Every structure is written in structure tokens, then in C-alpha cells.
Amino acid sequence: MTIQQRFSLIIALQTALVLVLVGIISFLVLQRFLEAGEERSLREALPLIEVHGELEHASEVELRLRPDFPAEVDVRVLQGDRVVATTGNFPPLPLRQPDGYSRTQGHQVFVRDYRGEEGNFTLQLATDLEGVREPLRAYLRALALTIPLLMLFAAGLSALTAGRLLKPVRELEQAALNIGQSGNLRQVIPYATAKDELGRLAQTLETSFRRIADMLERETEFTRAAAHDLRTPLTALKSRIDATLARERSGPEYQKTLQELGQDVSRMSRLTNHLLLLARDEAALKRVPVNLADLAGDSVDRARERNPDVPIEFEVKGQAKLNADPNLLSHLLDNLLDNAVKHGGRTPVKLRIEAGQEILLEVSDEGPGVQTEALAKLGETFYRSDSARQGEGSGLGLAIVKHIVMLHQARWQLVSEWGKGFAVKIWFPSARSG
């Protein structure tokens, strides 16, 4: 059974339940109104009755009814437990009846005591329940006819309404099917801009598809990167091992070969770590309060130890506190410093608070710089400018920096002119602004 059919059935059943409840309540209210009307009629008939004669002798009592007295009402006159006068059709009811209005043996009865010159007596007025029953039977017949018709009408109307309401769901289903068939996970989903439940569903689907697209891109990038850049060191390892095993060698020769193999393994380890960083999902980002000045200082110290001949200057102005992943920031700083110190010149590292409470990190070098047309491509995976091609880099350093910048919702700028050095500027949102 489809949702539309279930929706129609549920609405029809709810409508039937409501109609039945309304019918029962209306029946009871109508019955009470009819009984109240009959009671009022009996009350209004009392002044239309005249009792004359000697009450001590029933044969001498005369019961007179005015011309406008209701024909369906019968009267009985009692004195104590003795009937002294009655109309011919008065029903065989018990003599003792409660005062006022009551229902007895299928009749409506109204009782009133009187005290007059002729003596004390009791008037009993009675009529059958047909004045109440017949309208109620007519009402029940009307309900038996209208309730099924209203149920059918409600079912048809609910089916039409459900069809209109579920139309956007069918369109979302078709959009998801088209995305699955085309493979374009970044395709715009209809109703994503709506401000209702369907809009939130569409936004959730669109966000989920985009996250899947990001994951697939990272996986593809990781696979391509691994195949691209691990091939060279693996080939070199195999070649060195084959060459070493081709003939007997001396101890120093084996030691030199093992050192070269160790360098290749270290390079492969760095490449693997870099590729894993590129494949990292934003959902795995751990944000904690971080003092960027402390992290930068540690990275500068490590760079000085690795490159004692390179003058690395470190300058801090203000409290550089932000919410970030400290491990990723350490990778970012190490990559920036590794790129900068390769040229051997002065390497300034600056950290300061700018207007708008942003933290500016700037790392520059005095190398040959980058040509303008190549500057826009820096940060792409495996791209290396002509000035860097002679080194041992893999082209992943700035790609990792860019990825970490994006994960932290920061922004960066590359500044360089050919022959005038190179600088990377990164603006992080501080803990107060972010």
C-alpha cells in the first residue's frame, strides 16, 4: 500500500470516527432538546385544564379541557391514591409518580399537586415518546445516509490532497535517482530553498550528497596521489635492492646502500603522511583552544635544528589564540617552514592580530620567487613551479597547507614576484571572533 493510499485510508477513518462522535453527541443533544420541548408542552398544558365538582365523590367530578389543549396529552386527576377523573386514553401507569417531569414505561409524565376550594388533588399529564422518538429515528436515518457519503468524499479529497502533498516527494525521489544515474553528486536538488519540512529534507539530501562527493574526491585524490608519487621511490627501492643483490659487495658498500634505502623509506613515509592529511575529512577535525604563538615557536625551533645555517626570525604581536586542531596546525607550520628554508636565505615568520580580530600568520623567504602565471596554480596537488622542480619535494606541501586552511575556515594569500622572494599569508579567525 502506497503512502498516498495509507494517507487516504487514515483520513477516511478519522473522518468516520469524527462523524460518528459528532453524530452521537448531536443525537444526545437533540434528544435532550426534544424532551425539554415535550416537558415545556406539558407545563404549558396545565393552565388549559379545569377540575370542577365534589372531589369526595368521583362521580361528581368534571374534567374540562380547553379547545387548544394538545390532543396527544392525556390527563388523570388523583385525590390521594384514588382516581377521581381521567381522559379515556390515559395509559395504565402506576398511581404514584414523582413530582415534576419524568419518563415512565415509555411515556413522558408531568405531575403537579393543587389545593383548591374543592379540596386537594393531583394532576398527572402523560403522553407517549413518539414526539421524541420519531425525530430521533429520522435523524439516525439521515446519519446512516450522510456518514458513508461523507467518508467517500473525505477519502477522495484526502487522496487528492495527498497526491498534491506528495508531489514534491516524488520530485525529490526523481532528483535523487537522476543524481545516482548521472553521478553528479553536486547537482542542485529541488525545494532546497523552501522554508518547510520538505526544504529541510532537500537541504539534508543536498548536504549529504555533497559530503559524499567530497569524500569520493578525497578518495580519488588520495588514490591518484599514492599511485603517482609512490611509484618513483618504490621503483628506486626495487632498483637499488636488485643492484645490491646482483653481486657481492663490501660492508661499507652495503652500509651506503642501506642509508640510501632508508632515505627512500623516509620519503615514502612523509608522502604517506601527506596523503593521509589530504584525505582527512572535516568531520574528523578536533577543535580545541590553541595558542598559535606556542605552536609556531615549536615549529621554528624544529626548523632551526634541521637547518642551523638558515636565519629564521620569529616575531609575535598580540595573543594569537584560536580554536583549531593543533596537530594539523603543526603540519601546516612545518610545511611552510620547510618550503621557506630550502632557499637558504633569511626566513621571517610573523604572527599578529589584525583589525577584525583575525590572526595573521606570514611566512616568507628570499628565494627566486614564482612567476605570476604559476602563482595561481600553487596549492594544487602535485603542482611544482619551475623553481622548485630541482628539489626533492612532492608538490604536496602547499596542497596540504591549503587543505588545512580550508578545514579551519581560514583564508590564505600567496604573494610573490619573480626574483623577489615568496610569502604565504594566512588569516585565522581568533577565538574571540570565531
Brief synopsis:
This protein has helices at residues 3-45, 130-182, 197-229, 231-245, 251-278, 292-306, 326-341, 372-375, 397-407, and strands spanning 49-53, 61-65, 74-79, 82-86, 100-104, 107-116, 119-128, 288-291, 312-317, 321-324, 347-354, 358-365, 411-416, 422-429. It is α+β, with helices and mostly antiparallel strands. The longest helix has 53 residues, at 130-182.
Give a description of the structure.
The protein is of the alpha+beta class. It folds into 3 domains: 3-133, no CATH class; 197-278, Helix Hairpins, CATH 1.10.287; 284-429, Histidine kinase-like ATPase, C-terminal domain (Heat Shock Protein 90). It has 9 helices and 14 strands. The strands form 4 sheets. The chain has a 5-stranded antiparallel beta sheet with strand order 4-3-7-6-5, covered by helices on one side. The chain has a 5-stranded mixed beta sheet with strand order 9-11-12-14-13. A hairpin with a 5-residue loop joins strand 13 and strand 14 (422-429). Helix 4 runs antiparallel to helix 5 and helix 5 (251-278) packs parallel to helix 9. The longest helix is centred in the middle third of the chain and has 53 residues, at 130-182. The chain is rod-shaped and about 155 Å long. The chain starts with a helix and ends in a 5-residue tail after the last strand. Mean pLDDT is 80; it is low at 386-394.
